[in-house]
C-alpha cells in the first residue's frame, strides 16, 4: 500500500508544477515525505498577543491587535512609503510599506481593526514594523495560533516564487492537515522507546513518531519541541546504526570466509628467528582477535585503530604469514607509492631468509616486471603482494587470495574496500588499518559494519615527543637547535604545507623554504633531501632513499611523506605554517619522529597572527601525544563533515543528528541496536515487525542502503 507520503510534491495544494520543479531543484523536495523532513531552523512565538508598550530594545518580533489611527503617503516619487499608525490599549506603533503600496492602501484604512505581526526595527528611536503581516479582524475574537510558527531554510529563487522561510510552513501545515497518525506509524520497537534520564536515571518515554514530527514543525510548547527533536535524532541514529549492524550481523552468521585453521611454519619460524623485538601486549591482543576471526569460517572485516607508531605494520606482516601457513596469498595496500615501497623494502628485508615471494606493484611499475608480478599472482607462485591502488585493478588476479590489508584507511573509500572482496571466489579476509585514530563515535557510525580493534600502547622504550609552538621570528633559534641535533648524528624533517587551492603559492614557499634551509645548512657539510608531488618518481625515490640511508641529514618535504614513513634516526620534525594543518594531520606528521629510542622533538612554526581556533590546535598538540584524545578534539573542533574520508562517503549526512553534539543519543541508539540484534538478528520477531517494514520501505532512499 503506497503511503500518502510518497505522493509527488506537485500534488500538494498550493504547489503545482512550477513550484514543484523549483522545490526539487532548490531543496531536493520531491515528495510529501521530503517536505516533512525539511525541518524548520527556528520558530517564532505567535501564541501570544503583545502590548505595544512591551516593546523594548531587545524585542525581535511582535504580534499586536489594534486599530488604524492614521495612514499617510510620505516621501517623493522616488522613495515613497506608506506609514500607518496602529493603536492598541497601551500605545501607538508605526507600520511601514515601501512596496505594493497600492494594494495595502485598499486594505489598511483608518478605523480598521487588525492582527499585525512582524520584526521590530527602530527608526529615530521609535519602534516600527516594516512590511508586517496583517490580518483584518471583522470585530471577531482573536485566537492566536496555538503553536510556535516554524521558519524554514529556503533560497532566494524560492522566495521570489512566494516560498519564503515562513511560507514553506503554510505548505507543511497543509500537509499536516491531511496526515493521520496511521500515516506516520511508530517504527521503533517498544524496547527502544524508553530511555533513562541521564541525570536522574528515571525512565523517560519518547514521543510517538507522529507526535514528534508534528511538534518538530508546529510545537505547542518549547519543551515539546525539544522532545520531538530528540526523538527524531534518536530515530535517525538508531536506523543508521541498525543498517550497519544488520550488515555486520548477517556477515557474522552467513558470510563464507576462508579458514586459517592453523599456525604453521611461516609464522612460527619468523616469530622465533626473525622477529626483531618482543611484541607489545596490544599487538598480541590484536593478533589473537585476527586469528579468532580468520579461523571462524566467516569473512573477517576488521578495523584496526592504532596510534601513530604503535606498530601496525608488524601486525600486518604476522597476519599475512598466517595466511601463507594456510595455503593462501596475501596483499597489503598503501595509499602512496612511497609508503608502498617502504613497506615492501621493510618486509622483504625481514623475510629475506625465508622462502617467501614478496613483490611490489605500483602505478609506475614497468610493464615487464608488472607482467611478471601478475603472472606470479595468478599462478599462485607469489605469496605477498604489496602495492598502491594499482592492486585493485581488474588485471590483478590471485590464485588464492586469503587476506587483504589496507594500510592508512582514510584514503580508501568504502567502494574500494568492496572491490577487494571480488578478488577471489570466496572473499578474502579484510583488515583495515587507520593512520591516526578516528574518534570512537565516528568509527561507530562510519565503520559500524566492521569489527573493531584498538592498539593503544606504544612499543617500550619510546620517549614521549616534546612539542613546542614557536612564532616564525624564532626561526634562527630553531635552526640552531637543528644544527645541534644533527651534530649528535640525528636527522631532521622540515615540512611545508601543500594545499590544493593555493598550490602555486605553496610550491613557491616550498622552494623558498628549501633555499632558506640550504643557506643555514650549506653543502658539503650538510646534505638535504627534498620530496614533493611534482617530482618524477625516480627523483622522489632517490631523495627518499638518501634520507633513509642517512646520506642526507635534512628532509624538506610536503605532506607526501605524511603517512607511514619510518626513519627511526630522525628526531626533529619542524612544521612550517603549522596553522594551515588540521589536528590529525599535525599529529600524523609528528608521528614521523619518536620512532627510535632517542628523545624526539616537534616544532610547530606559525605566523604570530593566529586565530582562536588555530591557537587551540597548537595548544592541544603541545599538551598531548595521545592520538585518541586528539581525534576527539579534532571532531569537536571541525565537526564530522570535515574528517577526511568520511566526507565523500555521505554516511554522516544526518538531517537532524550531529554525532558530536548528540553523543548521548548516538550511544543510546548504539546500545539499543546491539541489544536488539542480539535477541533478534533477522528482525523476525513480532515486536520488530514495524521496524523491519520501515527499513524495507526506506530501501534505496538513503546513502546507507547503498553500501549493503
Ligand atoms: P604504525 O603503527 O604507525 O604504522 P609502524 O608499524 O611503522 O607504526 O612501527 C613504528 C616503529 O616501531 C617501527 O620502527 C617498528 O619497527 C617499531 N616497532 C613495532 N612494534 C614494535 C615492538 N613491539 N617493539 C619495538 N619496536 C616496535
Ligand atoms: Mg604505518
Please give a structural write-up.
Residues 474-636 form the Helicase C-terminal domain. This is ATP-dependent DNA helicase RecG. It catalyses: ATP + H2O = ADP + phosphate + H(+); Couples ATP hydrolysis with the unwinding of duplex DNA by translocating in the 3'-5' direction. The chain is α/β, with parallel strands linked by helices and 708 residues long. It folds into 4 domains: 4-44 and 151-183; 52-144, Nucleic acid-binding proteins (OB fold (Dihydrolipoamide Acetyltransferase, E2P)); 265-455, Rossmann fold; 466-624, P-loop containing nucleotide triphosphate hydrolases (Rossmann fold), CATH 3.40.50.300. 38% of the residues lie in helices and 18% in strands. It is built from 23 helices and 23 strands. It has a 7-stranded parallel β-sheet, sandwiched between helices. The protein has a 6-stranded parallel β-sheet with strand order 18-23-22-19-21-20, with helices on both faces. Helix 6 crosses helix 7 (222-254), helix 7 crosses helix 21 and helix 8 runs antiparallel to helix 10. The two termini are 25 Å apart.
Topology:
Blueprint (H helix, E strand, L loop, with lengths): L15 H12 L4 H5 L5 E3 L16 E14 L6 E7 L4 E6 L3 H7 L5 E11 L2 E5 L2 E4 L12 E3 L4 H5 L6 H12 L15 E3 L6 E3 L3 H9 L4 H33 L10 H10 L6 H14 L6 E6 L5 H14 L3 E5 L3 H14 L7 E4 L5 H13 L4 E4 L13 E7 L6 H8 L7 E5 L6 H7 L4 E5 L10 E6 L3 H13 L3 E5 L7 H18 L7 E4 L5 H13 L4 E4 L12 E6 L7 H8 L10 E6 L5 H12 L3 H12 L24 H17 L9 H10 L4 H4 L2
Parallel strand pairs: 4-6, 11-16, 11-17, 12-14, 12-15, 13-14, 15-16, 18-23, 19-21, 19-22, 20-21, 22-23
Antiparallel strand pairs: 1-8, 2-3, 2-5, 3-4, 5-6, 5-7, 9-10
Bound molecules: adenosine-5'-diphosphate and magnesium ion.
Amino acid at each position: 500500500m503506497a503511503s500518502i507520503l510518497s505522493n509527488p510534491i506537485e500534488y500538494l495544494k498550493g504547489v503545482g508544477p512550477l513550484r514543484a520543479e523549483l522545490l526539487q531543484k532548490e531543496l531536493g523536495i520531491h515528495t510529501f515525505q521530503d517536505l516533512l523532513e525539511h525541518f524548520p531552523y527556528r520558530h517564532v512565538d505567535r501564541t501570544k498577543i503583545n502590548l505595544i508598550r512591551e516593546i523594548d530594545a531587545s524585542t525581535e518580533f511582535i504580534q499586536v491587535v489594534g486599530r488604524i489611527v492614521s495612514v499617510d503617503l510620505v516621501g517623493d516619487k522616488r522613495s515613497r512609503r506608506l506609514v500607518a499608525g496602529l493603536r492598541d490599549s497601551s500605545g501607538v506603533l508605526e507600520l511601514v510599506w515601501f512596496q505594493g503600496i497600492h494594494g495595502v492602501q485598499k486594505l489598511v484604512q483608518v478605523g480598521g481593526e487588525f492582527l499585525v505581526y512582524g520584526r521590530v526595527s527602530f527608526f529615530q528611536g521609535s519602534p516600527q514594523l516594516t512590511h508586517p503581516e496583517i490580518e483584518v479582524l471583522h470585530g471577531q475574537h482573536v485566537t492566536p495560533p496555538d503553536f510556535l510558527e516554524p521558519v524554514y531554510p529556503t533560497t532566494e529563487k524560492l522566495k521570489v516564487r512566494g516560498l519564503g522561510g515562513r511560507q514553506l510552513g503554510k505548505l507543511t501545515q497543509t500537509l499536516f492537515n491531511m496526515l493521520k497518525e496511521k500515516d506516520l506509524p511508530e517504527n521503533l520497537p517498544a524496547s527502544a522507546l524508553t530511555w533513562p534520564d541521564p541525570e536522574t536515571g528515571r525512565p523517560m518515554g519518547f514521543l510517538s513518531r507522529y507526535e514528534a514530527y508534528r511538534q518538530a514543525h508546529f510545537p505547542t510548547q518549547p519543551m515539546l519541541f525539544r522532545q520531538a527533536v530528540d526523538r527524531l535524532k534518536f530515530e535517525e541514529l538508531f536506523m543508521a546504526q541498525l543498517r550497519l549492524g544488520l550488515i555486520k550481523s548477517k556477515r557474522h552468521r552467513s558470510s563464507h570466509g576462508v579458514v586459517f585453521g592453523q599456525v604453521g611454519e611461516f609464522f612460527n619460524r619468523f616469530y622465533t628467528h626473525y622477529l626483531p623485538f618482543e611484541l607489545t601486549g596490544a599487538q598480541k591482543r590484536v593478533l589473537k582477535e585476527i586469528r579468532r576471526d580468520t579461523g571462524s569460517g566467516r569473512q573477517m572485516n576488521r578495523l584496526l585503530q592504532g596510534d601513530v607508531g604503535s606498530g601496525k605494520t608488524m601486525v600486518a606482516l604476522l597476519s599475512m604469514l598466517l595466511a601463507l601457513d594456510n595455503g593462501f596469498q596475501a596483499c597489503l595496500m598503501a595509499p602512496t607509492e612511497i609508503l608502498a615501497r617502504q613497506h615492501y623494502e621493510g618486509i622483504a628485508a625481514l623475510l629475506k631468509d625465508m622462502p617467501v615471494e614478496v613483490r611490489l606493484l605500483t602505478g609506475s611499475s614497468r610493464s615487464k616486471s608488472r607482467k611478471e608480478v601478475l603472472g606470479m599472482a595468478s599462478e599462485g607462485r607469489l605469496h605477498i603482494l604489496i602495492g598502491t591502488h594499482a592492486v585493485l585493478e581488474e588485471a590483478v588476479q590471485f590464485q588464492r587470495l586469503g587476506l587483504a590489508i589496507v594500510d592508512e584507511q582514510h584514503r580508501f573509500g568504502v567502494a574500494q574496500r568492496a572491490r577487494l572482496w571480488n578478488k577471489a571466489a570466496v572473499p578474502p579476509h579484510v583488515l583495515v588499518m587507520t593512520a591516526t585514530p578516528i574518534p570512537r563515535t565516528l568509527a561507530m557510525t562510519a565503520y559500524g559494519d566492521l569489527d573493531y580493534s584498538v592498539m593503544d600502547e606504544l612499543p617500550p622504550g619510546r620517549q614521549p615527543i616534546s612539542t613546542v609552538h614557536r612564532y616564525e621570528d624564532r626561526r634562527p633559534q630553531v635552526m640552531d637547535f637543528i644544527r645541534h641535533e644533527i651534530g649528535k648524528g640525528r636527522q631532521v624533517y622540515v615540512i611545508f604545507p601543500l594545499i590544493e587551492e593555493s598550490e602555486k603559492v605553496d610550491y613557491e614557499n616550498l622552494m623558498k623554504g628549501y633555499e632558506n634551509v640550504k643557506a643555514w645548512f650549506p653543502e658539503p657539510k650538510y646534505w638535504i633531501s627534498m620530496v614533493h608531488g611534482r617530482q618524477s618518481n625516480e627523483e622522489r625515490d632517490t631523495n627518499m632513499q638518501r634520507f633513509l640511508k642517512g646520506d642526507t641529514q635534512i628532509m624538506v618535504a610536503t605532506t607526501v611523506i605524511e603517512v607511514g614513513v619510518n626513519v627511526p634516526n630522525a628526531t626533529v620534525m619542524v612544521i612550517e605554517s603549522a596553522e594551515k594543518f588540521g589536528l590529525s594531520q599535525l599529529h600524523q606528521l609528528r608521528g614521523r619522529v619518536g620512532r627510535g629510542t632517542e628523545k624526539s622533538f616537534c616544532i610547530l612554526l606559525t605566523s604570530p597572527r593566529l586565530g582562536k581556533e588555530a591557537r587551540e590546535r597548537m595548544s592541544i598538540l603541545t599538551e598531548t601525544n595521545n592520538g585518541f584524545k586528539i581525534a576527539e578534539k579534532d571532531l569537536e573542533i571541525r565537526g564530522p563533515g570535515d574528517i577526511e574520508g568520511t566526507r565523500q562517503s555521505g554516511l554522516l549526512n544526518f538531517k537532524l543528528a550531529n554525532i558530536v553534539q548528540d553523543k548521548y543519543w548516538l550511544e543510546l541508539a548504539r546500545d539499543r541496536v546491539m541489544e536488539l540484534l542480539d535477541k533478534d538478528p533477522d528482525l523476525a520477531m513480532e515486536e520488530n515487525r514495524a521496524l523491519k517494514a520501515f527499513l524495507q520501505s526506506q530501501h534505496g532512499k538513503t546513502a546507507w542502503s547503498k553500501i549493503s
